[in-house]
From TrEMBL:
Domain (Tyrosinase copper-binding) ranges: 112-129, 275-286
Keyword Signal among UniProt keywords: yes
Protein name: Tyrosinase copper-binding domain-containing protein
MF GO annotations: catechol oxidase activity; metal ion binding
Keywords, alphabetical: Copper, Disulfide bond, Metal-binding, Oxidoreductase, Signal, Thioether bond
The keyword Disulfide bond is annotated on this UniProt entry: yes
Part of the whole protein covered: 30 to 379 of 550
């Protein structure tokens, strides 16, 4: 059976916190009603109204100012508004540091290290983006993606860096030696600061090739392990698909501050989404899902337990809704597309 929408009344303090960190409440505000099922609707998404997610490094000042303004407005919402920035960030703590139990089960709800990784984060970004758009009063607004698989995008994007004029998009809890223009290391697990940019970019291309082509020939290897009703979360190091491991986990750790507990913010589940770059990183991960599917023979998981798995999110109206993993399959139905840019790893022969 599928994992059903989490039981919100089961919410407890997060588990799996680093021992030195004091767990805090990251439960979403409870709703007094049963959330309706929200489904993407093909009639509302004509191709003329598709929102375009663009590479962050190529953003102009005008876009950066709009993004910064959207986050300012989000930060300014009352703290108990589920659309406020801290509440948005807490969504990640809730589903990743397992504050909820699965419905009709005493087992916790965990979206990582399993096939729920891609659809959960797609829905998460979808609502986050719709809330930002609503705050701006601009229905065409779309998140940027961090295009680190391209040599021109292989650093913290300028608008998110500490040296830009948009302080709200940067974050003190990062590795300062990895600030713009340091080269991101997708194969990061040791200190690679000393690699010349050209070498690191080549390693990145190889890592992308492994994650999306060489090692991801089946839906199971790309998406990660099955996760069904009553299943316990995977122990660390198991269950993830190729992309969830690299570049996803590696870029999280590369951005995070390695002298802080849990390499926060980006290095730990509970803190990661407090860094605005989180959403650009995940837009990129989401884009990689789209790119993987353009390759011959690649398709989404068709298991009913995957398609019917459920999550809960507050939408741009502040209404709690229920969504299904299988309904995330088609980004166009959700109203957005990615700008097409060259992906050098697609043709790499390492
Ligand atoms: Cu829910 Cu980037 O992890």
């Amino acid at each position: 059976a599928p994992v059903l929408a989490p039981n919100m009344s089961s919410c407890h303090l997060p588990l799996d916190f680093p021992t030195a960190e004091i767990p805090y409440d990251c439960c979403a505000p409870a709703a007094a009603y049963a959330p309706r099922l929200f489904r993407p609707n093909s009639s509302s998404t004509s191709s003329s109204s598709l929102r375009m997610r663009q590479p962050a490094h190529a953003a102009d000042n005008n876009y950066a100012a709009r993004l910064a303004r959207a986050y300012m407005l989000m930060q300014a919402l009352p703290p108990d508004d589920p659309r406020s920035f801290d509440q948005q960030a807490n969504i990640h703590c809730a589903y990743c540091n397992t504050v909820y139990n699965q419905m009709f089960s005493s087992q916790v709800f965990q979206v990582h290290n399993s096939w729920l990784f891609f659809p959960f984060h797609r829905w998460y970004l979808y609502f986050h983006e719709r809330i930002l758009a609503r705050l701006l009063g601009d229905d065409t607004f779309a998140l940027p993606f961090w295009n680190y698989d391209h040599p021109d995008g292989a650093s913290i994007p300028w608008l998110f860096s500490g040296s830009s004029a948009y302080a709200i998009l940067s974050n003190a809890l990062r590795d300062s030696s990895h600030e713009f223009p340091a080269t991101v290391a997708i194969d990061f697990n040791v200190d690679t600061n000393l690699r010349p940019r050209e070498d690191q970019v080549r390693e990145n291309t190889n890592a992308m090739y492994r994650a999306l082509i060489r090692d991801a020939t089946t839906p199971e290897s790309f998406f990660g392990w099955a996760y069904r009703h009553g299943d316990a979360p995977m122990p660390q190091g198991y269950g993830f698909g190729t992309v969830e491991s690299q570049p996803h986990n590696s870029v999280h750790r590369w951005v995070g501050n390695r002298s802080a507990i849990g390499w926060k913010d980006m290095g730990s589940f509970y803190s990661a989404a407090h860094d605005p770059i989180f959403y650009a990183h995940h837009a990129q991960i989401d884009r990689l899902w789209e790119l993987w599917k353009t390759m011959p023979g690649h398709k989404d998981i068709e298991d009913e337990d995957y398609k019917n798995a459920e999550f809960l999110f507050y939408n741009e109206e502040g209404e709690l809704v229920r969504v299904k993993a299988g309904d995330a399959s088609n980004a166009t139905m959700l109203g957005y597309v990615y700008e097409e840019v060259e992906a050098p790893w697609m043709h790499a022969i390492p």
